[in-house]
Amino acid sequence: MRAVVLVAALALILLMRQSLAGAEHLGGVLVWWNVVILLAFLAFNSLSGLTVAGILLLALVSLFLTGQRPSSADMQVLLAGLFSAVNVTALGFLTMRFIEQHLMLHEETTDQLAAARKDALTGVLGRAALEEELRRTIQHARKTATPLSVIVTDIDHFKRVNDEFGHGAGDDVLRSFAKRLRRNVGGSGGVVGRWGGEEFVVVLPGLARPDALVMAERLRQEVFHAPVASHQITASFGVASFRSAADDLDTLFGRADARLYEAKNAGRNAVRG
Protein backbone atom coordinates (compact mmCIF):
# COMPACT_ATOMS: atom_id res chain seq x y z
CA MET A 1 0.00 0.00 0.00
CA ARG A 2 2.90 2.34 0.68
CA ALA A 3 4.13 2.01 -2.89
CA VAL A 4 0.62 2.77 -4.18
CA VAL A 5 0.45 5.93 -2.06
CA LEU A 6 3.82 7.14 -3.31
CA VAL A 7 2.87 6.49 -6.93
CA ALA A 8 -0.45 8.27 -6.39
CA ALA A 9 1.35 11.25 -4.85
CA LEU A 10 3.69 11.51 -7.83
CA ALA A 11 0.79 11.21 -10.25
CA LEU A 12 -1.09 13.99 -8.44
CA ILE A 13 1.91 16.32 -8.65
CA LEU A 14 2.14 15.73 -12.39
CA LEU A 15 -1.61 16.11 -12.79
CA MET A 16 -1.56 19.36 -10.83
CA ARG A 17 0.86 20.88 -13.28
CA GLN A 18 -1.55 20.13 -16.10
CA SER A 19 -4.66 21.31 -14.29
CA LEU A 20 -3.76 24.88 -13.45
CA ALA A 21 -5.49 26.05 -16.62
CA GLY A 22 -9.01 25.21 -15.42
CA ALA A 23 -10.54 25.88 -11.98
CA GLU A 24 -13.12 23.13 -12.33
CA HIS A 25 -10.50 20.51 -13.17
CA LEU A 26 -8.22 21.86 -10.46
CA GLY A 27 -10.90 21.46 -7.78
CA GLY A 28 -11.28 17.79 -8.58
CA VAL A 29 -7.53 17.24 -8.35
CA LEU A 30 -7.38 18.97 -4.97
CA VAL A 31 -10.06 16.62 -3.59
CA TRP A 32 -7.89 13.64 -4.50
CA TRP A 33 -4.94 15.49 -2.98
CA ASN A 34 -6.62 15.25 0.43
CA VAL A 35 -7.47 11.60 -0.14
CA VAL A 36 -3.81 10.78 -0.82
CA ILE A 37 -2.73 12.67 2.31
CA LEU A 38 -5.12 10.59 4.42
CA LEU A 39 -3.93 7.38 2.76
CA ALA A 40 -0.34 8.39 3.51
CA PHE A 41 -1.11 8.49 7.23
CA LEU A 42 -2.88 5.12 7.04
CA ALA A 43 -0.06 3.48 5.07
CA PHE A 44 2.80 4.94 7.13
CA ASN A 45 3.17 5.92 10.76
CA SER A 46 2.35 9.43 11.91
CA LEU A 47 5.81 10.91 11.27
CA SER A 48 6.30 9.26 7.88
CA GLY A 49 2.76 10.19 6.90
CA LEU A 50 3.48 13.78 7.92
CA THR A 51 6.59 13.74 5.73
CA VAL A 52 4.62 12.55 2.69
CA ALA A 53 1.88 15.09 3.40
CA GLY A 54 4.50 17.83 3.79
CA ILE A 55 6.06 16.97 0.43
CA LEU A 56 2.65 17.16 -1.21
CA LEU A 57 1.92 20.51 0.41
CA LEU A 58 5.30 21.87 -0.65
CA ALA A 59 4.65 20.64 -4.17
CA LEU A 60 1.26 22.38 -4.15
CA VAL A 61 2.79 25.67 -3.00
CA SER A 62 5.68 25.32 -5.45
CA LEU A 63 3.36 24.73 -8.38
CA PHE A 64 1.30 27.71 -7.28
CA LEU A 65 4.36 30.00 -7.10
CA THR A 66 6.24 28.81 -10.18
CA GLY A 67 3.33 28.26 -12.56
CA GLN A 68 1.75 30.89 -14.74
CA ARG A 69 -0.27 33.46 -12.87
CA PRO A 70 -3.65 31.85 -12.08
CA SER A 71 -6.96 33.47 -12.75
CA SER A 72 -9.10 34.80 -9.93
CA ALA A 73 -11.22 31.66 -9.99
CA ASP A 74 -8.12 29.44 -9.93
CA MET A 75 -6.72 31.50 -7.06
CA GLN A 76 -9.82 30.88 -4.94
CA VAL A 77 -9.73 27.17 -5.69
CA LEU A 78 -6.01 26.93 -4.89
CA LEU A 79 -6.31 28.80 -1.59
CA ALA A 80 -9.31 26.71 -0.57
CA GLY A 81 -7.42 23.56 -1.55
CA LEU A 82 -4.32 24.62 0.37
CA PHE A 83 -6.38 25.43 3.46
CA SER A 84 -8.16 22.09 3.20
CA ALA A 85 -4.89 20.18 2.71
CA VAL A 86 -3.35 21.80 5.80
CA ASN A 87 -6.39 20.91 7.88
CA VAL A 88 -6.47 17.33 6.59
CA THR A 89 -2.75 16.98 7.34
CA ALA A 90 -3.16 18.26 10.88
CA LEU A 91 -6.19 16.05 11.47
CA GLY A 92 -4.47 12.98 10.02
CA PHE A 93 -1.32 13.53 12.08
CA LEU A 94 -3.15 14.09 15.38
CA THR A 95 -5.43 11.12 14.79
CA MET A 96 -2.56 8.77 13.98
CA ARG A 97 -0.56 9.99 16.99
CA PHE A 98 -3.53 9.30 19.24
CA ILE A 99 -3.94 5.80 17.77
CA GLU A 100 -0.22 5.04 18.07
CA GLN A 101 -0.05 6.20 21.68
CA HIS A 102 -3.16 4.19 22.52
CA LEU A 103 -1.68 1.06 20.90
CA MET A 104 1.63 1.61 22.67
CA LEU A 105 -0.14 1.95 26.02
CA HIS A 106 -2.14 -1.20 25.27
CA GLU A 107 1.04 -3.13 24.43
CA GLU A 108 2.75 -1.92 27.60
CA THR A 109 -0.26 -2.89 29.68
CA THR A 110 -0.38 -6.31 27.99
CA ASP A 111 3.33 -6.83 28.64
CA GLN A 112 2.92 -5.82 32.28
CA LEU A 113 -0.01 -8.20 32.73
CA ALA A 114 1.96 -11.01 31.09
CA ALA A 115 4.96 -10.28 33.32
CA ALA A 116 2.72 -10.21 36.40
CA ARG A 117 1.45 -13.69 35.55
CA LYS A 118 4.97 -15.12 35.48
CA ASP A 119 7.21 -16.19 38.30
CA ALA A 120 9.97 -13.59 38.41
CA LEU A 121 12.77 -16.09 38.97
CA THR A 122 11.93 -18.94 36.60
CA GLY A 123 9.75 -17.34 33.92
CA VAL A 124 7.00 -19.97 34.22
CA LEU A 125 3.53 -19.17 35.51
CA GLY A 126 3.36 -17.84 39.04
CA ARG A 127 1.09 -19.22 41.76
CA ALA A 128 -1.92 -17.00 41.05
CA ALA A 129 -1.77 -17.51 37.28
CA LEU A 130 -1.27 -21.24 37.78
CA GLU A 131 -4.37 -21.49 39.96
CA GLU A 132 -6.31 -19.56 37.31
CA GLU A 133 -5.07 -21.93 34.60
CA LEU A 134 -6.02 -24.96 36.67
CA ARG A 135 -9.53 -23.65 37.27
CA ARG A 136 -9.94 -22.88 33.58
CA THR A 137 -8.77 -26.31 32.42
CA ILE A 138 -10.87 -28.08 35.06
CA GLN A 139 -13.94 -26.20 33.90
CA HIS A 140 -13.15 -27.11 30.30
CA ALA A 141 -12.67 -30.80 31.19
CA ARG A 142 -15.96 -30.74 33.10
CA LYS A 143 -17.87 -29.22 30.17
CA THR A 144 -16.31 -31.28 27.38
CA ALA A 145 -15.60 -34.56 29.21
CA THR A 146 -12.01 -34.46 27.95
CA PRO A 147 -9.02 -35.82 29.90
CA LEU A 148 -6.98 -33.60 32.18
CA SER A 149 -4.00 -34.53 34.33
CA VAL A 150 -1.80 -32.66 36.75
CA ILE A 151 1.79 -33.40 37.77
CA VAL A 152 3.16 -31.96 41.00
CA THR A 153 6.94 -32.18 41.23
CA ASP A 154 9.48 -31.22 43.85
CA ILE A 155 13.29 -31.08 43.69
CA ASP A 156 14.71 -33.63 46.13
CA HIS A 157 16.94 -32.29 48.90
CA PHE A 158 16.91 -28.81 47.40
CA LYS A 159 17.91 -27.29 50.74
CA ARG A 160 21.29 -29.02 50.41
CA VAL A 161 22.01 -27.05 47.22
CA ASN A 162 21.33 -23.77 49.01
CA ASP A 163 23.29 -24.81 52.10
CA GLU A 164 26.34 -26.16 50.24
CA PHE A 165 26.56 -23.84 47.23
CA GLY A 166 24.59 -20.75 48.20
CA HIS A 167 21.24 -19.31 47.20
CA GLY A 168 22.62 -18.13 43.87
CA ALA A 169 23.28 -21.73 42.91
CA GLY A 170 19.84 -22.66 44.17
CA ASP A 171 18.27 -20.01 41.94
CA ASP A 172 20.22 -21.36 38.96
CA VAL A 173 18.89 -24.85 39.67
CA LEU A 174 15.30 -23.58 39.90
CA ARG A 175 15.61 -21.69 36.62
CA SER A 176 17.18 -24.64 34.79
CA PHE A 177 14.68 -27.10 36.28
CA ALA A 178 11.73 -24.94 35.16
CA LYS A 179 13.24 -24.56 31.70
CA ARG A 180 13.69 -28.32 31.39
CA LEU A 181 10.09 -28.97 32.44
CA ARG A 182 8.76 -26.42 29.97
CA ARG A 183 10.90 -27.77 27.12
CA ASN A 184 9.68 -31.32 27.64
CA VAL A 185 5.96 -30.66 28.07
CA GLY A 186 5.53 -27.82 25.59
CA GLY A 187 4.91 -30.14 22.66
CA SER A 188 1.98 -31.77 24.44
CA GLY A 189 0.24 -28.47 25.10
CA GLY A 190 1.17 -28.61 28.77
CA VAL A 191 1.60 -25.58 30.99
CA VAL A 192 4.27 -25.27 33.69
CA GLY A 193 3.99 -23.15 36.80
CA ARG A 194 5.82 -22.65 40.06
CA TRP A 195 3.65 -23.41 43.07
CA GLY A 196 6.21 -22.14 45.54
CA GLY A 197 9.77 -22.83 46.66
CA GLU A 198 11.10 -25.84 44.76
CA GLU A 199 7.64 -27.20 43.95
CA PHE A 200 6.31 -26.98 40.40
CA VAL A 201 3.08 -28.00 38.72
CA VAL A 202 2.53 -29.26 35.18
CA VAL A 203 -1.00 -28.95 33.79
CA LEU A 204 -1.68 -31.41 30.97
CA PRO A 205 -4.98 -30.78 29.14
CA GLY A 206 -6.02 -33.71 26.98
CA LEU A 207 -3.81 -36.27 28.72
CA ALA A 208 -5.35 -39.14 30.64
CA ARG A 209 -3.63 -40.73 33.64
CA PRO A 210 -1.60 -43.40 31.74
CA ASP A 211 -0.11 -40.79 29.38
CA ALA A 212 0.51 -38.40 32.27
CA LEU A 213 2.42 -41.12 34.13
CA VAL A 214 4.56 -41.68 31.04
CA MET A 215 5.21 -37.94 30.86
CA ALA A 216 6.15 -37.78 34.54
CA GLU A 217 8.57 -40.70 34.18
CA ARG A 218 10.16 -39.04 31.16
CA LEU A 219 10.62 -35.84 33.19
CA ARG A 220 12.11 -37.80 36.08
CA GLN A 221 14.66 -39.46 33.83
CA GLU A 222 15.43 -36.19 32.09
CA VAL A 223 16.36 -34.64 35.44
CA PHE A 224 18.15 -37.71 36.78
CA HIS A 225 20.38 -38.41 33.77
CA ALA A 226 21.61 -34.88 33.09
CA PRO A 227 22.93 -32.30 35.58
CA VAL A 228 20.70 -29.29 36.20
CA ALA A 229 22.73 -26.06 36.23
CA SER A 230 25.87 -28.17 36.78
CA HIS A 231 24.33 -29.89 39.83
CA GLN A 232 23.34 -33.53 39.95
CA ILE A 233 19.83 -33.53 41.38
CA THR A 234 16.73 -35.67 41.34
CA ALA A 235 13.04 -34.88 41.57
CA SER A 236 9.90 -36.64 42.74
CA PHE A 237 6.60 -36.57 40.88
CA GLY A 238 2.95 -37.04 41.83
CA VAL A 239 0.26 -37.50 39.18
CA ALA A 240 -3.52 -37.10 39.40
CA SER A 241 -6.22 -36.95 36.74
CA PHE A 242 -9.63 -35.35 36.50
CA ARG A 243 -12.26 -37.89 37.55
CA SER A 244 -15.70 -36.32 37.59
CA ALA A 245 -17.67 -33.09 37.70
CA ALA A 246 -17.15 -33.09 41.46
CA ASP A 247 -13.43 -32.45 41.00
CA ASP A 248 -12.18 -28.93 41.59
CA LEU A 249 -8.81 -27.26 42.09
CA ASP A 250 -8.44 -28.41 45.68
CA THR A 251 -9.37 -32.06 45.11
CA LEU A 252 -7.33 -32.49 41.92
CA PHE A 253 -4.25 -30.74 43.24
CA GLY A 254 -4.68 -32.47 46.59
CA ARG A 255 -4.53 -35.93 45.02
CA ALA A 256 -1.46 -35.04 42.96
CA ASP A 257 0.23 -33.57 46.03
CA ALA A 258 -0.56 -36.70 48.03
CA ARG A 259 1.00 -38.86 45.30
CA LEU A 260 4.08 -36.61 45.41
CA TYR A 261 4.55 -37.32 49.10
CA GLU A 262 4.14 -41.02 48.41
CA ALA A 263 7.06 -40.70 45.97
CA LYS A 264 9.06 -38.82 48.62
CA ASN A 265 8.34 -41.45 51.23
CA ALA A 266 9.32 -44.20 48.78
CA GLY A 267 12.87 -42.84 48.66
CA ARG A 268 12.51 -39.88 46.29
CA ASN A 269 13.48 -39.79 42.60
CA ALA A 270 10.21 -41.57 41.87
CA VAL A 271 6.82 -41.20 40.19
CA ARG A 272 3.53 -42.04 41.88
CA GLY A 273 0.04 -41.68 40.48
TrEMBL record:
UniProt organism field: Deinococcus cavernae
- Supply the SMART domains for this chain: GGDEF
Membrane-spanning intervals of the chain: 33-65, 77-99
Q: What is this protein called?
A: GGDEF domain-containing protein
The family database entries (Gene3D superfamilies) matched by this protein are listed as: 3.30.70.270
Tell me which residues make up the GGDEF domain: 146-273
Q: Which UniProt keywords apply?
A: Membrane, Transmembrane, Transmembrane helix
Q: Does the keyword Membrane apply?
A: yes
Q: Which Pfam families match?
A: GGDEF (PF00990)
Tell me a GO biological process for this protein: cell adhesion involved in single-species biofilm formation
The UniProt GO MF terms for this protein read: diguanylate cyclase activity
Q: Give the top-rank taxon of the lineage listed in the UniProt record for this protein.
A: Bacteria
Sorted alphabetically, the Gene Ontology cellular component annotations on this record are: plasma membrane
